[in-house]
Every structure is written in C-alpha cells, then in structure tokens.
Amino acid sequence: MAAQSETNVHSNESAQSANTTPTASVCGNDPEKGAEPEKAAEKSLANGPAPATPVIGPPPDGGAQAWLVVLGAFSGLFVSFGWINCIGVFQTYYESHQLSTYSTSTVTWITSLETFVMFFCGPIFGTLFDSYGPRNILLLGTFLHVFGLMMASLSTEYYQFILAQGICSPIGASAIFNASVNSVSTWFAQRRAFALGITASGSSLGGVIFPIMVTQLIPKVGFPWAMRICAFLILFMLGIANATLRSRLPHRPKQFDILGFVRPLAELKFALTVAGAFCFFWGMFLPFTFVITQAERYGMSERMAGYLIPILNAARYVLSFGFRFSSNVFFSIFGRTLPGYLADKVGRYNTMVVTTFFSAILVLALWLPARGNIPAIIFSALYGFGSGAFVSLAPACVAQISDLRQVGVRNGTFFAVISFAALTGTPIGGALVPDVLHGDYTHLQIFCGVVMITGACLFVLARGVIGGFKLQKV
Asked: Phi and psi at residue 325, in whole multiples of 5°?
C-alpha cells in the first residue's frame, strides 16, 4: 500500500521535506539511496486503491506549538531522567542509613533498577505512543512516578525501596520520558537534534536541583519529607508537561506485534547503533553512582563530595539558555544543547562519535588517576559535558534511520536493549569495589573506560554503514 507523505530524517532532509505526495516513503533507508516510492505505488495498484487518508506535511521545525511541546518535554525529562541522574546521592545515603547492613552491590540494585525499568518499559510506551499519542501515557506516568516517591518516603525495608523507588516510580518515569522524546521528534526534522538537546537539558537541570534538594532537606526536615517535597515539585513540573505536550501525527490503534520490536535489529545500521549505545551505557552511569564515594575515599569532605553530582549535571545544562549561575554551570553551554545544535550542522553520528570517545578518554585519563579534590571536580564538570550529549543525540540518531511513524517502537527497542546495560553496570561496579570507603576503584574505572571506548568504536562502524567513512555529514 502507498505510504503516506512524511519528511525523511536523514542528511538529505531538506531536499526530501518538500515531497508530500501520498506515495513518498518515510522508511529508514540510507540517505544516499533514498526511498522507493515506485515499488510502493506498484504494490498499491496491484492490491487495489488504498483508503484515503489525510496527507501529513513535513515537520514545521519551529513555531509556537512546536516550541511549547519542547517546553513540555523539557519538564518531562526534568522529572524523569533528571531524577535518575541523582542516583549517586541515594546510593551514598542508603549505605550509611536505612540500608547500612547491606553490601554495596546489594544497595546498587535499587538505583540500577531505576534506570533499567525506565528504559526497559520503552517498547510498551513506544507502542502506546504510536497508537494513541502522548496524552494518556503522560497521565499514567504522572500518577505512578509521584505515587512511587510518596511510598519511598514511607519505606524502611530493602524490599520496600525496591518496589517504590526501583519499580513503581521508574515505570512512571518511563512513560513520561517516552511521551516527551517521541512527541518532540514529530515536530522537528532538520533541527531535531537541537530540539532534543534542549529537551534533554531538562534532565541535567533536574540532576542539578534534585541532589541539592535531597542533601539539604534531609538534615532539616528528615528523609520522608525530603522525598515528599521532591514529589510535589515533580507534580508541578508534570502539570506543565500535561498542558503542553502534543503529537503532530495522527495516531490510530495498532495491533501489538512483539516482532515489531525485533525487526529493527535485523538492520545492520540499527543493530550497530544499539550495540554502541549498550556498551557506552554500560559504563556511563558508573561515575554518577561512585564519583562521590571515590572522592571521599581519597580525602574529599562529605559536604564537598555531595556537590559533585550537581557539578556533573550542571556541566550539561544552563548556558544553553544564555544564563550563568556559577563557574561550574558555565561548562553547560557544551553539555547537551550545543552538541545537538552542532549535530544538525555536522551530522548526528559524527557528533556522537566525538562525544563518546571524549567521555571514555576522560574516565581513563582523568578519573582513573584522580587522587585529590581538584581532579575530581574537573572530571565531574568535563564528564558531564561529554556524557550529556548521549541522551540528546541517541533519539536523534534513531529517528535519522527510522520511519517517523514507527519512531515510538524503534526508540522503545533501542532503550529496552540498553536498559540491560543500566541494570548490570552499577552492580558490576559495586562488585569491583567491595568496600566503597576504603577499597581500590581501579578495576571499576578500567571497566568503565574500556566498555565506553568499545561503544564509541561501534558508533564509528554504524556511521560507516550509514554514510561511509569519508569526512561528510552523517
């Protein structure tokens, strides 16, 4: 049957966006090869005329409605990925308070489950998005995320933290994350990486604010009320997201097809992209989880170490909007929005390769030998800059090689696969450092750097399959 008109999301988007005829393909073919509308048309004629459906024009790449969607998605990532970005604070707190009798590796299952569940639910919410749009997904996510944190505020036992903070809350965060990212992708083509960069910077701002809130509120109001206050802030931000998030595409219920999540993996370019992301993600969250305890191990005060996570996230955010809150936040112009902006200019895969190699080198060349306060602070700022690009560039890369009408499912497959890296990476790191306050972090840091470099190399191969190995925009 004839495919409906849509702009392609490859490097030749500008040329293809003008094609709005009913037979124009939006399949994820290589940019140079383009679509094959003639074959689709011949098949349509052989099977009889297709039912008339409205023609969808190219994404507007701007306008009031599109930027309101970005605002809503920014708020959505502020409370979803932004909350996940502060897992290092809870890792440290639980080990010294409620769960002090448990080993480091056991406690890390709470924080690793948060990341795993948020991404593993991607295929479910991706399918629901493609079928029904973001509205009901967002409402469900709002309830589950806030309810889970309220229950965590009442928790005292290990299994209670697992259920509330490790399962219920991240299911809601997953719904919010997928509704936000997928909605933005429907409104932008040529400026998609930039728009997703602004969206992803919401998670960095959340990663700055939430750790400071938690560490400052707990001594003043106690752990239960600290969690509740965070939950109320999340509810407020989700009010903005629910009021502004919209999808540009018409959504019709589709039959659930489990093979639909598997088929993209048969495409070499998609498989290499997922493999690269898996390896990079395997190590990416280890500094988030262990940078505080590693710094304390080598003499940093507990008070100063508590600001390393905010510094790390600050290096991913603020100057993308032209503000400068502090010298640490100054790095943020490069964090998430600038890589997205550059990706639209020089190529999304090109930018992904550079930033992933940069992050991996930082781990091995700076974090591994770090033994003082200054190296730990510099590493946190620079690593936030490098790793921050991944979250904004990953959905843009997936959209570049995908049919936009299947972006929800394919993003779901992508994040579901890398969720297993998130699930196992942190416990492996905890096992490599049995005593976090007195042990040696060398093995953890080597593991982190090696798997991230492997991921960067796989992104190079994916780039070569998509656009060749010549210096060009890919």
From this structure: -85, -30
Contacts of 246 (CB under 8 A, 6+ apart): 65, 68, 69, 72, 133, 134, 183
For residues 163-188, one letter each, b for 16 or more C-beta atoms within 10 angstroms of the residue's C-beta and e for the rest, the string is: bbbbbbbbbbbbbbbbbbbbbbbbbb
For residue range 110-127, list pLDDT tens digits in order: 888 888 898 888 888 888
The residue out of 35, 58, 81 marking a domain boundary is: 58
Amino acid at 420: F
Sign of the alpha-carbon dihedral angle for 225, 230, 232, 235? negative
Q: CATH number of the domain at 75, please.
A: 1.20.1250.20
Helix 337-346 / helix 348-362 crossing angle, nearest 10 deg: 130
**Segment holding 95, helix H or strand E:** helix 87-96
Give the HSE-up count for residue 178: Cα atoms under 13 Å, Cβ half-sphere: 38
Report d(CA 353, CA 468) in Å as an integer.
Answer: 14
What is the predicted pLDDT for the residue at 340?
A: 60
What pTM was computed for the model?
A: 0.69
Same domain, 327 and 189: yes
pLDDT of residue 80: 92
The tokens describing 409, both together, are 């499912």
Within-domain flag for 473: no
The reply to whether 83 and 21 lie within a common domain is no
Residue 300 zone, left/alpha/beta (φ > 0; ψ -120 to 50; rest): beta
- Amino acid 281 reads F
Expressed in angstroms, the distance from the first to the final Cα of the chain is 30
In a domain, 337, yes or no: yes
Instruction: List the domain range (segments joined by +) for residue 14.
Output: 1-58
Do 120 and 46 fall into the same domain?
no
**Would you say residue 265 lies in a domain?**
yes
Q: Which two tokens stand for residue 286?
A: 């280890």
Same domain, 75 and 27: no
Shared domain check, 352 and 449? yes
Asked if residue 472 is part of any domain, the answer here is: no
Same structural domain, 278 and 205? yes
Same domain, 51 and 137: no
Under DSSP, the state recorded for 330 is G
Tell me which residue has tokens 């399959």.
Answer: 465
The residue whose two tokens read 């502090």 is: 326
Averages of pLDDT over runs of 10 residues in the chain (474 residues) are 37 38 35 39 43 62 89 94 81 84 84 87 85 92 96 93 94 93 86 81 84 89 94 96 90 78 90 95 88 84 79 59 35 50 79 92 92 87 81 82 79 87 86 74 93 96 90 80
